[in-house]
Amino acid sequence: xxxxxxxxxxxxxxxxxxxxxxxxxxxxxxxxxxxxxxxxxxxxxxxxxxxxxxxxxxxxxxxxxxxxxxxxxxxxxxxxxxxxxxxxxxxxxxxxxxxxxxxxxxxxxxxxxxxxxxxxxxxxxxxxxxxxxxxxxxxxxxxxxxxxxxxxxxxxxxxxxxxxxxxxxxxxxxxxxxxxxxxxxxxxxxxxxxxxxxxxxxxxxxxxxxxxxxxxxxxxxxxxxxxxxxxxxxxxxxxxxxxxxxxxxxxxxxxxxxxxxxxxxxxxxxxxxxxxxxxxxxxxxxxxxxxx
Length: 292
What we know:
Elements: E1 13-19, H1 26-34, E2 41-47, H2 54-64, E3 68-72, H3 79-88, E4 94-97, E5 103-104, H4 108-118, E6 122-132, H5 153-162, E7 171-173, H6 174-179, H7 189-198, E8 202-214, H8 222-230, H9 240-244, H10 250-260, H11 265-288
Parallel strand pairs: 1-2, 1-4, 2-3, 6-8
Antiparallel strand pairs: 4-7, 5-8, 6-7
């Protein structure tokens, strides 16, 4: 029989939920996160000056659950700043971003924290993922994963470079996440953050948990996504130049991350030398995977 531990034995886990106008799905998202079976949990909602019923719905959940705390902005600070604000508010040893429209299996946090507790060198643990539609119907889109716990730093870096961005919504060690901030306010900022984290430790796959990522926006083309990025509520890719060349800043940001890392100089130069010729192909992959 497994020993039952008091809550104090479990490290505090923070789920930060940056939201803006999520009234359509925030109720189900909060219900899903509140059902996590991890016993030492705080849920921080960072509302980005929503103009719909998002805040009202969040307040109802907060009145029912003392683990929930709400911070509401007076004016929209932009999506990147709001994501970072959620991290600033965290008190936990571990942190996970939760969106206002997705769903999670109830043991996701528990499995991810257990993996990180057992692997000191890892900095992030992430669940399997699948896509769902507006009515929770499964979508025919696959999302792969890569466990990098036994890989060298260069291999971890390129695994992130060629992979999808789903691990950014995994469970992270707070101190390593904060060491990678601020996240650049640019298209591909999530890739830069993950690359930075990859240089600091491995990513662990939690095979028995699932994050259901909801696709509900009518974005059929890459330019549709760029238009959303340029909107005041997102605050990136606002200029025409940024929309024409959305990933132009990406190589410089990645090289900056590499040069500031603690890797040996020879390793840094080798990774940069391999990175530069890979960038045009990565740009094409990014355009074709506009929803990933």
